[in-house]
Specification:
Helix 10 packs across helix 12. The chain has two domains: 307 residues, 3-Layer(aba) Sandwich (Aminopeptidase), CATH 3.40.630.10; 114 residues, Alpha-Beta Plaits (2-Layer Sandwich), CATH 3.30.70. With 434 residues, the protein is an alpha+beta fold. Bound molecules: glyoxylic acid and manganese (II) ion (2 copies). One manganese (II) ion (MN) binds next to loops. Belongs to the peptidase M20 family.
């Protein structure tokens, strides 16, 4: 493994910079929201780079892009890597992008050194991971994993009124590639941590053992539009005042159950949106996260009850609908141990951890043995233009990815999937520290 070459950091950084120029924002961040014109430009650029690197490029019906570097075997087995090129509205330049472009850098490095792997390696750009425009997120990877119907996905309507299926066709990325054309023996996703833990513990690599569970909800509050000057306060069915009370009280309640919970209201809509009309309709989103599915179940019931009780007090009708469930995930032990062993063999300080953010890897873990590699995020900042990772850490993550992908692509496969290389097995986990 150590005889493998290192990736070219300058080239990786230049590639990230070019991608960050598409949808660039004034403060160094990026706005390339899924299926917008900027997303199309970013995809086109990625496809051009992949073709230049000698990959065959395919697009499936969810708009996922697969760039395949052939192996010496002529079968359909493949080691997958990748992440997403779409961003948050005020996104950084690394969330998702780093994983996709580091995958491309791995392929370029293998090309530079004429290294042929036994199995093919494919880099994937999954569609709409973020869910910032079309909800639920993880759309492309969910579709690929068989967790989301194509007809359901195509009908998703964004708050801007656009339909997922129409936008996919408009930007030219409604493809026909069949997922049965590939037989993934492993999926490994490289990502920035997006939290403060690696920096705090001064570790370069996070060996990701799993991901906490995520649930999204839409809550709608139906009151009644009234004149703001003539309607006495006690006679109102004010959907916004109900929303304000409900969200505050939900936050208090979930924190009292477990301070480790993550509870976010990130989107609010108030209608008709006129200063002198009592708003008759309001809605809000909830993003709820925890490592225990049981606790998420319990909290879900508590939230629904809160919304109902306060809704009745305020005279508004409430409905709460689940829009996404990503169960807590434990990654494949063989992949986790492979990443741990390779990280140790190249000498990067590492630790095992659980991801607070969700990832396409959550969906892929249903399809193939899956694992993730993290690198530090400065101050733990993400979903913000200040997102930043030290260049040496970007290189370290990509080097671990290179070695992991080659190791998996060249290894024999047992019934559960890819095995760790013989030399690297049984590395004591405590050596990676906590
Ligand atoms: C990913 O962007 C997440 O919401 O965790
Ligand atoms: Mn991401
Ligand atoms: Mn994100």
């Amino acid at each position: 493994m150590n005889s493998l070459p290192k990736i070219n950091l300058e080239r990786l950084q230049a590639t990230i910079d070019t991608m960050a120029g598409i949808g660039a924002k004034d403060n160094g961040g990026c706005c390339r929201i899924s299926l917008t014109d900027e997303d199309k430009l970013g995809r086109d650029q990625f496809v051009t780079w992949c073709r230049e690197a000698g990959c065959s490029v395919h697009v499936d019906a969810f708009g996922n892009i697969f760039a395949i570097r052939a192996g010496s075997r002529l079968d359909s087995s493949v080691v997958l890597t990748g992440s997403h090129l779409d961003t948050q509205p005020n996104g950084g330049r690394l969330d998702g992008i780093y994983g996709v472009l580091a995958g491309l850098e791995v392929i370029r490095t293998l090309n530079d050194h004429n290294i042929c792997t036994e199995r093919a390696i494919a880099v994937v750009n999954w569609t709409n991971e973020e869910g910032a425009r079309f909800s639920p997120g993880l759309t492309g990877s969910s579709g690929y994993a068989g967790d989301l119907d194509l007809s359901f996905a195509r009908a998703i309507v964004a708050p801007d009124g656009a339909r997922f299926g129409d936008e996919l066709a408009r930007i030219g990325y409604a493809g026909t590639f069949s997922r049965r054309a590939l037989d993934p023996i492993a999926y490994v996703e490289l990502h920035i941590e997006q939290g403060p833990v690696l920096e705090q513990y001064e570790r370069t690599i996070g060996v990701v053992e799993g991901v906490q569970g995520v649930r999204w909800y839409d809550v709608e509050l139906q009151g009644s539009d009234r004149h703001a000057g003539t309607t006495p306060m006690a006679a109102r069915q004010d959907s916004f005042m109900a929303l304000a009370r409900i969200t505050q009280s939900m936050r208090q309640e979930v924190l009292s159950i477990d301070p480790e919970i993550r509870f976010t209201v990130g989107r609010v809509s108030v209608k008709p949106g006129s200063p002198n009309t009592v708003p008759g309709f309001s809605s809000f989103s909830i993003d709820l996260r925890h490592q225990s599915a049981g606790l998420l179940d319990r909290i879900e019931n508590v939230l629904a009850a809160k919304a109902h009780v306060i809704g009745v007090e305020e005279g508004v009708e409430t409905t709460m609908r689940r829009t996404m469930v990503v169960p807590p995930i434990e990654f494949d032990t063989c992949i986790v141990e492979t990443v741990a062993a390779i990280t140790q063999s190249v000498g990067y300080p590492a630790m095992r951890m659980t991801s607070g953010a969700m990832h396409d890897a959550c969906r892929l873990s249903k399809v193939a043995p899956t694992g993730m590699i993290f690198v530090p995020s400065r101050l733990g900042i993400s979903h913000h233009e200040d997102e930043w990772t030290a260049p040496d850490d970007l290189a370290a993550g990509a080097n671990v990815l290179l070695r992991t992908l080659v190791s998996l692509a060249d290894q024999s496969v047992n019934q559960r999937g890819a095995t760790a290389p013989e030399d690297d097995r049984n590395v004591p986990s405590q050596s990676l520290g906590h």
